[in-house]
Specification:
The protein contains five helices and no strands. The longest helix is centred in the middle third of the chain and has 29 residues. Helices cover 73% and strands 0% of the residues. By secondary structure, it is mainly alpha-helical. Helix 2 packs across helix 3 and helix 2 runs antiparallel to helix 5. The chain is elongated and about 50 Å long.
C-alpha cells in the first residue's frame, strides 16, 4: 500500500517528505479498512459460544439500530497509532 501511495505522490523522486506522506496515507487507509473487522473480533472475545463474525456484526448493527457507530469504536486512536508507526 505504501508503494502505491509513493507512485501516486511522485514516481520519479522519493525524498523523506514523500516517504512520510506515503506511509501516513497507507497507515490511515489500513486503519480505516481494518478497524471495523477488529471491532467485531474484539466483541467476540470472552464469549462462551462463538457465533461467527457475520452473526456478531449483524447483532451489533441491530443493537445500534443500524448505526455504524459500534464498528467505528477506537478508530481515532487506531488512526493515530497507524499513521505514526505505520
Amino acid at each position: 500500500l505504501e508503494h502505491l501511495f509513493l507512485q501516486m505522490l511522485n514516481p520519479t523522486e522519493s525524498g523523506p517528505l514523500v516517504n512520510f506522506l506515503a506511509g501516513t496515507a497507507a497507515g490511515a487507509v489500513n486503519a480505516t479498512i481494518l478497524n471495523p473487522l477488529s471491532a467485531i473480533k474484539y466483541k467476540t472475545w470472552g464469549r462462551e459460544i462463538n457465533r461467527g463474525m457475520w452473526t456478531e456484526a449483524r447483532m451489533m448493527l441491530e443493537k445500534s439500530n443500524g448505526s455504524p457507530r459500534p464498528f467505528l469504536n477506537g478508530l481515532r486512536p487506531t488512526l493515530y497509532r497507524d499513521i505514526v508507526f505505520g
